[in-house]
């Protein structure tokens, strides 16, 4: 049976040299992150010399700051499951994962969304991606993983902006084009607040069906999808149809939905590829604006097709527009009921 309060799992990613360890060290040392279990690849990657180790238990360090530092050693899902099994004894409130610099976060999100041992015990909190002002543009040019890290983020923080201030405006514009739904900020200004890893506190700019891209990032495209209060079965039908047509290209579908049968409680929508996270609901609308707002991030697919599919379900009848009733036959009923 699901636990009453699933543990939020945040993901910290960024390419080699982006400054993940520096940010993580700052967070670990701050009292605001007491009660956080942190999963790293190896303890040696975290500079804990200035932190006092209270206890050592296998692949786990308990720090006097109130954090638990766990070494994944290549098996991330097992590390998460191991922590969750010991949640009552360890007493943590959240989990933070630091990925390797060359990691594609997509498989990590897949594991978190539908890992059988995580069902009902954990939920995806948010993805924070670091991009260095010094070499971020060159890294995005050369590495698919770096582009995916930016495209899948809820927040993108520019690091080392003091070392290359002239490069910051163009870099911010580029990552905004890669991921128009992400909040973009400066890592130096990011406070040590667990809400940093809460996707629902990010402040993206609403852009409707607008989508832009840099020439080197042409494969990864985003589209923002908006509607008012929607029918749960119809929303489930849209997700199923999108996954059926573009599941292999769907890096991420995320957002919140206002459902007709329960409009006061936003439904959190999270999907990666063909996998859909079990529906969760918030207690209320933080901005007081009950509207459905999703973003689809695609790799190699035309975002206009996703926008047209959305319009077929929620835009009303029109010439050359697919019929929503027929599309409902593609499945998905009840996912948000």
How would you describe this protein?
The chain is of the alpha/beta class and 337 residues long. The chain has two domains: 7-205, Rossmann fold (3-Layer(aba) Sandwich); 216-330, Hypothetical Protein Yjia, Chain: A,domain 2. Helices cover 27% and strands 26% of the residues. It has helices at residues 20-28, 76-85, 87-90, 105-114, 136-142, 144-151, 168-178, 232-246, 303-314, 324-327, and strands at 7-14, 36-40, 53-57, 60-63, 68-71, 94-98, 122-132, 155-159, 183-186, 220-227, 229-230, 250-259, 267-272, 275-276, 280-281, 292-299. The chain has a nine-stranded mixed beta sheet with strand order 3-4-5-2-6-1-7-8-9, sandwiched between helices. Strands 10, 11, 12, 13, 14, 15 and 16 form a seven-stranded mixed beta sheet that branches. Helix 5 crosses helix 6 (144-151) and helix 8 runs antiparallel to helix 9 (303-314).
Break the fold down into its secondary structure elements and pairings.
Elements: E1 7-14, H1 20-28, E2 36-40, E3 53-57, E4 60-63, E5 68-71, H2 76-85, H3 87-90, E6 94-98, H4 105-114, E7 122-132, H5 136-142, H6 144-151, E8 155-159, H7 168-178, E9 183-186, E10 220-227, E11 229-230, H8 232-246, E12 250-259, E13 267-272, E14 275-276, E15 280-281, E16 292-299, H9 303-314, H10 324-327
Parallel strand pairs: 1-6, 1-7, 2-5, 2-6, 7-8, 8-9, 11-12
Antiparallel strand pairs: 3-4, 4-5, 10-16, 12-13, 12-16, 13-14, 13-15
Helix pairs in contact: 5-6, 8-9
Q: Termini separation (Å)? A: 18 Å
**Major β-sheet strand ordering:** 3-4-5-2-6-1-7-8-9
CATH topology of the largest domain: Rossmann fold
Quaternary assembly: single chain
Mean pLDDT: 80
Domain CobW C-terminal: 220-314
Pfam families: cobW (PF02492), CobW_C (PF07683)
Protein name: GTP-binding protein
Keywords: Chaperone, Hydrolase, Nucleotide-binding
């Amino acid at each position: 049976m699901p636990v009453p309060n699933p543990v939020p799992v945040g993901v910290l990613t960024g390419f080699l040299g982006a400054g993940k360890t520096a940010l993580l060290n700052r967070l670990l040392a701050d009292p605001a992150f007491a009660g956080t279990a942190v999963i790293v690849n190896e303890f040696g990657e975290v500079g804990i010399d200035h932190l006092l180790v209270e206890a050592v238990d296998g692949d786990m360090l308990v720090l006097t700051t109130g954090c638990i530092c766990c070494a994944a050693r290549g098996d991330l899902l097992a590390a998460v499951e191991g922590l969750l099994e010991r949640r009552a004894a360890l007493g943590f409130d959240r989990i933070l994962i630091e990925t390797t610099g060359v990691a594609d976060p997509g498989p990590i999100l897949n594991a978190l969304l539908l890992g059988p041992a995580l069902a009902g015990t954990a939920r995806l909190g948010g993805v924070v991606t670091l991009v260095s002002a010094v070499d971020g543009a060159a890294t995005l040019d050369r590495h698919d993983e770096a582009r995916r890290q930016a495209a899948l983020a809820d927040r993108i923080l520019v690091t080392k902006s003091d070392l290359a201030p002239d490069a910051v405006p163009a870099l911010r514009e580029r990552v905004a084009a890669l991921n128009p739904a992400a909040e973009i900020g400066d890592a130096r200004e990011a406070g040590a607040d667990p809400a940093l890893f809460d996707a629902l506190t990010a402040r993206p700019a609403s852009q409707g069906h607008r989508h832009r891209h840099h020439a080197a990032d042409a494969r990864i495209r985003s589209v923002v999808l908006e509607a008012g209060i929607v029918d749960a079965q119809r929303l489930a039908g849209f997700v199923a149809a999108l996954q059926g047509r573009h599941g292999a290209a769907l890096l991420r579908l995320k957002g919140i939905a206002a459902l007709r049968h329960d409009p006061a409680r936003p439904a959190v929508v999270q999907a990666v590829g063909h996998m859909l996270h079990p529906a969760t609901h918030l207690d209320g609308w933080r901005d007081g604006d009950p509207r459905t707002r999703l973003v689809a991030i695609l790799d190699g697919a035309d975002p206009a097709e996703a926008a047209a599919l959305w319009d077929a379900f929620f835009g009303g009848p029109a010439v050359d527009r697919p019929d929503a009733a027929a599309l409902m036959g593609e499945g998905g009923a009840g996912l948000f009921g």
